[in-house]
């Protein structure tokens, strides 16, 4: 199976750019995510982390 795919990809001009583009997108995404985590406000992170533990509020409960 790999031989079949490799043989077909060798015939395409400029196919070597696709793995480089994929790596750059992957790297940029995780660098941006890391930067957001570092710069996020602690109050917001604590508020969001407590959301799964809160009781759901329904209109019929007093």
Automatic annotation (TrEMBL):
The chain crosses the membrane at residues 16-38. The keyword Transmembrane applies. Keywords: Membrane, Transmembrane, Transmembrane helix. This is Cbb3-type cytochrome oxidase component FixQ. It comes from Leeuwenhoekiella polynyae. The lineage of its organism: Bacteria, Pseudomonadati, Bacteroidota, Flavobacteriia, Flavobacteriales.
